[in-house]
């Protein structure tokens, strides 16, 4: 009963924060008005989850098929025909900035309410909002943190300025005229990793200092103090696709470095309080909520029955969508066994069902509210980004076991299940993906 009340409180918090954002956005955008209030045109109701990098753009260059695709997704008045959410593991900007960027590239209106960055679910982690948190990444990290609800924020730059002898790899940044006095900072209670930083050596060093001093980097390391203060990480992508012919290092690669450095020094595994972003369950729960809210704005009286996740990264997009689909199927069976009870899953239950790293507190990987969840989530893999038909990395036999050597690009804390890398469909580009969905759902795409 207490757990049910907890999930309801998470739902109310998340819903109120999104409703507040929608009201604010309504003064500067016409997203709320861009939907026509009409029921689904076809026999089924569905929502589309779009990855961005490698699906819609390559760096700053739009993929040609993306513009045509989105022309087909809106009517002559620029109103969306179906609920659309952009789910990206990027996190180096605000939602408003990303929405404006997409609007320019795709030549259709994109609202901040349609954009989900890797760190967006941190709005639910209220337990940490009043703590003093160290944030790592690039872009306006302090502004992003405050926007998510964190009240007491310390950046890496603030930390290195307060303790000028910590960052010494770059000799040009080292103190030249003696050792300046340490300003000192309040103790740090938790570390929030938004994305890969620009100066990896600085961030790796200072984050390690914070972890080994219990949040007091001016003190001496204590390698026996374990566990360390909480760490929340967003975006586990090992690789991502920009303009280059080959993938680039992502935040997942930075996490690999941090994890191995910490273990090399202490002998212990780095522990995460939460891992957020694709393929995390929390991310897909949050995306589902955004899809539901847009369906309501469309005037749909029937619940969204299916989700289609379109991406280019087998480990992030395909693995995550399939993981969530497995959770939905398991929850559906549980609801049937519970004889129609509306509460379809808990954090512990989802962990047992899909073997996913868990949010220990301040967040929910279960059902948000009492609405009927979708029947499933299909994964659609495009060939314009990380994945290429020339270099397939998908298991040829979904039933094969992991007996052969296989490179696993997923995060350390995710159990490797090769069957979850098998997409529901493989298509050439995003335009072909949307055409496939509309055809399967019996909708007309003009």
What does this structure look like?
- The structure is a single chain.
- The protein is of the alpha/beta class and 446 residues long.
- The protein folds into two domains: 46-118 and 279-337 and 374-391 and 407-441, Rossmann fold, CATH 3.40.50; 125-275, HAD superfamily/HAD-like (Rossmann fold), CATH 3.40.50.
- It has twelve helices and 15 strands.
- A six-stranded parallel β-sheet has the order 5-4-1-13-14-15, with helices on both faces.
- Helix 3 runs parallel beside helix 12 (430-441) and helix 7 (200-212) packs across helix 8.
Question: Tags for this entry?
Answer:
single chain, 446 residues, alpha/beta, Rossmann fold, five-stranded parallel β-sheet, 12% strand, disordered N terminus, HAD_sf
User: Strand count, sense and closure of the main sheet?
Assistant: 6 strands, parallel
Unreliable stretches covering 5 or more consecutive residues: 1-11, 21-39, 339-369, 396-405
The CATH homologous superfamily of the largest domain is named: HAD superfamily/HAD-like
Helix/strand-derived category reads alpha/beta
Q: How confident overall, as mean pLDDT?
A: 82
Query: Could you say which overall geometry the principal axes of the C-alpha atoms support?
Result: elongated
Number of β-strand runs: 15
Instruction: Please give the CATH architecture of the largest domain.
Output: 3-Layer(aba) Sandwich
- The top level CATH class name of the largest domain: Alpha Beta
In DSSP terms (H or I, runs of 4 or more residues), the helix count works out at 12
Q: Which H/E pattern describes the elements?
A: HHEEEHEHEEHEHEHEEEHEHEHHEEH
Biggest β-sheet: strands ordered side by side in the sheet: 5-4-1-13-14-15
**Cα radius of gyration in angstroms:** 22 Å
Helicity level: 25-40%
Measured between the Cα atoms of the first and last residue, the distance is: 49 Å
Binned strand content: 5-15%
Examine the coordinates and then state which fold CATH places here, giving the name of the CATH topology of the largest domain.
Answer: Rossmann fold
Integer tally of domains = 2
